[in-house]
Write a structure and sequence with these properties.
Elements lengths: L1 E3 L2 H13 L4 E6 L5 H13 L2 E6 L9 H6 L4 H10 L4 E3 L3 H4 L18 H4 L3 H16 L3 E5 L3 H14 L4 E5 L19 H6 L2 H14 L4 H14 L3 E9 L25 E8 L2 E8 L2
Parallel strand pairs: 1-4, 2-3, 2-5, 3-4, 5-6
Antiparallel strand pairs: 7-8, 8-9
Length: about 290
């Protein structure tokens, strides 16, 4: 496995692969890798000749400096995990390599950046759009892979690819979960044992809300069920629970009003949830079957 910290040698390596006619898969991450990330690597390896995993804690997408400072960084462990799944190359630059000068470019994703994560994390998706654009330009992958857990991010990146005509295929891979349903996340490393147990409220709330909606309950009633579950659990707080159109992220008041993207069953809305366990912010989502 090749490890690159600078852009130029990475591009030289990839150019040689492409001249040989090889396809390139990209899995962008911020490190602190877990089985969910590795599942993306495995999908990429199955569909491409060369797989690159980027590990970069991108400062421009953090609207909370404390969150940036405390984000887990486990590069040595990450590289060992990537070697075990036979990843071909790792790109792990310093911030000065990706941002030699302070960036002044901002992205505005319109409605996609006004709801849910965009509303509670102003500037977050501008930073995501910037770093993903950089990675796409540097690596020029054939395909890029993202986890479903960050569905709103995937919707933003899909729009970025469409509008800027990036020549690549995007794939969203289903969320990997622990045995008790908790979505795998690098932020889970910051939870103590009691908080880790309390964090199952996110998955439990999605399941309960989904069952309620499927049995004819209104979205308001489903939201009340979610809030009650959070109120019952110590040390957790709900930031939002929404039902959204899985393509354009319009907030839905009618479970039958979704306009799903290609590749998903028609009319499939998505439930999205965010909240805190202690000071650790977690998100999750689930398609409404």
């Amino acid at each position: 496995m090749e490890i690159f910290k600078q852009i130029a040698p990475l591009k030289a390596f990839l150019n040689a692969q492409k001249r040989a006619g090889k396809s390139v898969g990209l899995v962008p991450t911020m490190g602190a890798l877990h089985a969910g990330h590795l599942s993306l690597i495995k999908v990429s390896k199955a569909q491409n000749d060369v797989t690159v995993c980027s590990i970069f804690v991108n400062p421009t997408q953090f609207n909370n400096p404390n969150d940036l400072q405390k984000y887990p960084r486990t590069l040595d462990k990450d590289t060992l995990l990537l070697e075990k799944v036979e990843c071909d190359a790792v790109f792990c630059p310093e911030a000065s390599e990706m941002y030699p000068e302070k960036s002044i470019i901002k992205f505005d994703f319109g409605h996609l950046d006004r709801v849910m994560e965009g509303a509670f994390r102003p500037g977050h998706f501008s930073g995501v759009g910037l770093v993903v654009s950089k990675l796409f330009n540097i690596i020029q992958p054939t395909r890029a892979y993202f986890g479903q857990k960050d569905w709103q991010q995937f919707a933003v990146i899909r729009r970025l690819v469409d509008e800027l005509n990036f020549d690549l295929e995007l794939t969203s891979v289903p969320t990997s979960r622990e045995d008790d349903g908790l979505a795998m996340s690098s932020r889970n490393l910051r939870l103590n044992p009691d908080q880790r147990q309390a964090a199952t409220v996110f998955y439990e709330s999605l399941v309960a809300a989904g069952q309620a909606l499927q049995h004819g309950k209104t979205i308001r009633e489903a939201r009340a069920i979610v809030q009650a579950k959070f109120d019952e659990r110590q040390g957790v707080s709900l930031e939002y629970f929404e039902l959204a159109d899985s393509k354009n992220l319009n907030i839905l008041e009618n479970v039958n009003a979704s306009d799903s993207p290609s590749g998903l069953p028609v009319g499939l809305p998505i439930m999205c949830i965010a909240g805190f366990v202690g000071e650790v912010r977690l998100i999750d989502n689930m398609f409404l079957q």
